[in-house]
Specification:
The protein is mainly α. Helices cover about 85% and strands about 0% of the residues. The protein contains 17 helices and no strands.
Length: about 500
């Protein structure tokens, strides 16, 4: 095994495990405690709005570029100046589109300064993602690992100083979070450009209409897929805040729970990054993907099961450990959103397999169905159940889209039902539920719920090992396959 590759991949995983969850749960969660549910809920809704329209900034360019540069390095210097010019034009369209949507949805003019800064932040972040796609395509894994977490690391440092450093006596303001994002993103973008220009030295800016149109045509299928998926991932916060009389408060309650889901999702998505090129190679060489699907299922699905079960039994304790207010309202929402994590784990396996196969038309149809279903369910459920209704809509949507992707992938690749794996997963599910229920109801570790959770995690890992669901060799095989593909 290539030592350098393993170190770089390990660095990527370690940095993401340490920095991103700490920022989301530690810093961002504390900021919500300080500023209050309504103020944070309004910010969360505006942020969701910018995410919904973020596709205008990218139109699938990042995914298209990563694939092309990885296969043909010389295309970087050829297309980089044209894509930079195109992204500047798209940034202007994005800013105008967000402002028009903000006005159409009837947001208060008091939020104008906030939406303007959020627009700027999304534009800078879009450029960071594009530069990162070039670093990845050039196999500059160490540099990409640093860039992948630098913005969050800087935001942790800045916000921690403002929250606990005693450098100001003024209570924390939500605007400070947005300004911290701007500073962190700018520094990250500058460093990313430095890494790129040091290796490739591309020209900065060049515009040609025909080239821009060609790039847009090539990247459009990716853009449609991303847009539709973002709708049923991010539209909840906007609909909650706009549809309800107490929308700001309910959006804040939803944000309490969504933050945990986002932290888990960020980690699980790293497996999709590894799986995509490996699946693509197997498909290109017309090899069977069954073995890799089983390996990925063993690595992702049991983790999803553990998270769902613990989140259900300890929802109030977990919410109470992070938040000061509205714990009773946030806990049921949290249980539902974390249940989504199981289906998202399945999507990272079977959705990634379909993406590697180039089945974008099929994925777009599934995503369109998911987006429509989610919006309709939100319209029906939010007025009656508020934040809980939005979480229920998300759970149903994620479950339906995951099952459809599983069914399509199984049919397309003629995947056989693995009775041994299914039996092991069912036994694992039953045992973890039994252990968690028994520990929760009948066992008490000096009235310490977190010791109970640690005990459940330890027992769950032991069960995984005993059932053969977790093996070091599985992860080793996956990493070796990823390394082999990236080096070609």
């Amino acid at each position: 095994m290539n030592k350098k590759f393993v170190i770089n991949l390990g660095l990527l995983l370690l940095l993401n495990f340490l920095v991103k969850p700490f920022y989301i749960l530690g810093i961002d969660g504390e900021i919500q405690n300080r500023v209050g549910q309504e103020i944070y809920g309004q910010y969360f809704s505006l942020l969701g709005l910018t995410f919904l329209l973020n596709i205008i900034l990218d139109v699938g360019i990042v995914n298209y570029n990563t694939r092309n540069i990885a296969q043909h390095n010389f295309l970087l210097t050829k297309y980089f100046p044209y894509i930079i010019a195109l992204r500047l034009i798209l940034s202007a369209f994005f800013g105008v589109s967000v402002l028009l949507t903000w006005w159409f949805l009837g947001y208060s003019f008091d939020t104008f300064h906030m939406i303007m800064w959020l627009i700027a932040n999304q534009i800078i972040m879009g450029f960071i993602l594009y530069v990162r796609s070039n670093l990845t395509g050039l196999h500059l894994f160490k540099q990409d690992s640093i860039i992948s977490v630098l913005d969050r690391f800087l935001m942790v440092a800045i916000c921690a100083a403002l929250l606990w450093g005693g450098i100001t006596k003024t209570p924390f303001k939500i605007e400070w979070l947005i300004y911290a994002q701007t500073v962190a993103y700018l520094v990250t973008l500058v460093l990313a450009l430095y890494f790129l220009t040091k290796s490739a030295k591309p020209k900065l800016f060049k515009y040609r209409r025909a080239v821009s149109i060609n790039i847009l045509k090539q990247s459009l299928p990716y853009a449609v897929l991303i847009l539709l998926m973002v709708i049923y991932y991010r539209i909840d916060s906007v609909m909650i805040e706009r549809m309800l009389p107490d929308g700001k408060l309910q959006a804040g309650i939803y944000a309490n729970a969504f933050r945990f889901f986002e932290a888990g999702n960020n980690i699980a998505s790293l497996f999709a990054i590894i799986l995509l090129p490996v699946f693509a190679k197997l498909i290109k060489e017309k090899q069977k993907v069954d073995s890799l699907v089983v390996t990925a299922s063993k690595l992702l699905i049991p983790g999803g099961i553990i998270i769902v079960i613990i989140s259900f039994f300890y929802s109030y304790e977990l919410m109470g450990a992070r938040y000061d207010n509205y714990v009773d309202q946030s806990a049921p929402v949290f249980s539902l959103l974390m249940a989504c994590f199981f289906f998202v784990s399945c999507t990272y396996i079977f959705g990634t397999l379909l993406t590697a196969n180039g089945s974008l038309k099929i994925l777009n149809r599934v995503a369109l169905s998911g987006a429509i279903l989610n919006v309709v369910l939100n319209i029906v459920l939010i007025p009656y159940y508020k934040a809980f209704g939005a979480a229920l809509a998300s759970l149903i949507t994620q479950a339906v889209t995951a099952v459809i992707q599983l069914f399509i992938a199984s049919k397309l690749f003629k995947l056989k039902l693995n009775i041994k794996l299914m039996t092991s997963l069912m036994v694992f599910l039953a045992l973890v539920v039994a252990v968690t229920f028994t520990t929760r109801v009948y066992v008490s570790f000096i009235n310490s719920w977190w010791l109970e959770v640690i005990f459940i995690l330890i027992v769950s890992v032991l069960v995984l090992v005993s059932l053969g669901l977790i093996r070091i060799n599985d992860l080793k095989t996956l990493i070796l396959s990823y390394k082999s593909n990236r080096n070609e």
